[in-house]
Amino acid sequence: MADGERPIEEGVRTDFRSRMNYGGYLDLDKLLDAQHPVSEPVHPDELLFIIQHQTTELWFKLVLHELEAVRTQLQEGDISRARKGIARVKHIFRTLAEQWSVLATLTPSEYAEFRGFLGSASGFQSYQYRCVEFVLGNKNAGMLKVFEASPEHYGGLRSLLESPTVYDAFLRCLAARGHDVPAEILQRDVTKAWVEHPELVPVFTAIYEAPDAHWAEYAMCEDLVDLEDAFQFWRFRHLRTVQRTIGYKKGTGGSSGVGFLRRALDLTFFPELYSVRTEIGN
Ligand code: HEM
Ligand SMILES: N[C@@H](CC(=O)c1ccccc1NC=O)C(=O)O
């Protein structure tokens, strides 16, 4: 390699007139032609803003795909397969939480130069984010209103509103394995947000006090806690990024901004899995 060039090996394929290639498989022409800044003249930092959102939405797509599979696997009683999906989603949220540092390089002055062009658009209107929240149990029928202009999104979200969550599926799976999950919980109205059921804590206490006897259930509980932690960390980093970028301005979506996002940190998907910790070793 005296010339500093890596020789291209003989077998390396270069003729793609009748073979699938990289860009074709990944439909990159479409993907890379989907960044359309709206600022005039185009602000150089708007591309960062768009790509940060688009990459997040791509990962949300996978998160939803995995969580729907996890729910089915739990309905089939296959905890070990479901655990693998939950682990993948957890790692996606960790990656997404890390990704906030890229957007944090956008200063308040730079953002202020193109924020006005965004109009009323806001992440609050993210269909996939709302789907993820719903499938994990943070249901809120009021959120459907945002999607009234799009029948496809409205219908998709409504169908998730009316479906059991990942946690509902897990609890049904626990009941099928002989755990004493109260019937009212198994028959709850799944369109409502999950609220803590103290009667469920003893079910988890029994699992946590004898991990060896209930290893699959025990490990799944810990995976769910990992997932909630990772999700909360994403919410927290969003909040901090918003705070450093727009301070205490109102959001483009019409909310109070940072205060509204802070209240999301009080939401919890699996409250009993935190309450059970108080009981361990007592
Ligand atoms: C400088 C960048 C950002 C700022 C200043 C910002 C600001 C805000 C604000 C103020 C809200 C509250 C709703 C509103 O009134 O608009 C919000 C909500 C939201 N944003 Fe962002 N955001 C930023 C980046 C992002 C990114 C990169 C994503 C990724 C998709 C995102 C996703 C969301 C979501 C999902 C919500 C709804 C949260 C909820 O309902 O709890 N945001 N954002
Ligand atoms: N809500 C943000 C605007 C914003 O961040 C945004 C605008 C358009 C599309 C996605 C966005 N991301 C998250 O809210 C703001 O108030 O500045």
TrEMBL record:
Q: Does the keyword Phosphoprotein apply?
A: no
> Which key words are in the record?
Dioxygenase, Heme, Iron, Metal-binding, Oxidoreductase, Tryptophan catabolism
Record keyword Cell membrane present: no
Q: What class of enzyme is it?
A: oxidoreductase
Q: Where does substrate bind?
A: F49, I50, I51, Q52, H53, Y111, R115, T252
Q: How does it assemble?
A: Homotetramer.
Q: What does this protein do?
A: Heme-dependent dioxygenase that catalyzes the oxidative cleavage of the L-tryptophan (L-Trp) pyrrole ring and converts L-tryptophan to N-formyl-L-kynurenine. Catalyzes the oxidative cleavage of the indole moiety.
Q: Which family does it belong to?
A: Belongs to the tryptophan 2,3-dioxygenase family.
Q: What is this protein called?
A: Tryptophan 2,3-dioxygenase
Q: Which organism is it from?
A: Flexivirga caeni
Tell me the gene name.
kynA
